Amino acid sequence: MNPDANGGDETAELLRRCSSGDAQAYDTLFAAIYADLHLRARHLARGAGATLSTTALVHETYLKLAGRGLALNDRAHFFALAAGAMRQVLLNGARDALAQKRGGGMKETTFDGALAVPSEADDRVDMIALDHALQQLAATDARLARVVELHFFAGLGFAEVGELLGLAERTIARDWRAARALLQMQLEAGERG
Fold first, then answer.
1. Residue at 60 is within a domain
2. Burial of 143 (C-beta count, 10 Å sphere; 0-12/13-18/19+)
3. What is the pLDDT of residue 70?
4. Which of 56, 152, 171, 186 could be cross-linked to 133 through a Cys-Cys bond (beta carbons 3.0 to 4.6 Å apart)?
């Protein structure tokens, strides 16, 4: 995801205009990252067995953000909001599916070697359990939780996450490994408990 494809000055101006309530600036900013969001949403929706299409997931994310009257501080803030919105849309879809089935047949998401230890069937975890684990992680280490949101939900590479958070790429890679291990332990504990 790189809204700076046309230059950092243009993105900074769009962010400033978004913060002042300019809906057209938000539309332009969102259009600049639409293709990247669509690719990430395709991965997430497929793994989650989401009831929404990829396009619908991106559009729901757009609507969730557009309805908030965004006051954006910087690129990192925008990406954090976009990642959080996509996570919330997926979580709401998982909750709806759970409610419709009265607790049975909940949709799952696959981390494709991202979060879970690589293996075939064991990589699946439901979105509700993931959300709970992320909330627990955020309570103990907000930076690790933010790295997960930006890397997994927003689809940013370690270098980009590092740039947004003002940290070295090696630090982000180390944070990712730590977050992945902690989340995996929480998810496994939830399965046993």
1. yes
2. middle
3. 67
4. 186
The pLDDT assigned to 96 comes to 75
Q: Residue 84 is which amino acid? A: G
Which structure tokens are listed for 97? 């599916």
pLDDT tens digit sequence for 43-68: 766 655 556 678 888 888 888 877 66
How is 63-104 classified by DSSP, letter by letter? HHHHTT-----SHHHHHHHHHHHHHHHHHHHHHHHHHHHTTS
pLDDT of residue 130 exceeding 70: yes
Question: Which CATH number belongs to the domain containing residue 143 in this structure?
Answer: 1.10.10.10
Q: Are residues 47 and 140 in the same domain?
A: no
The identity of residue 166, as a single letter, is G
CATH number for the domain including 13?
1.10.1740
pTM of this structure: 0.66
Flag whether 53 is in a domain. Answer: yes
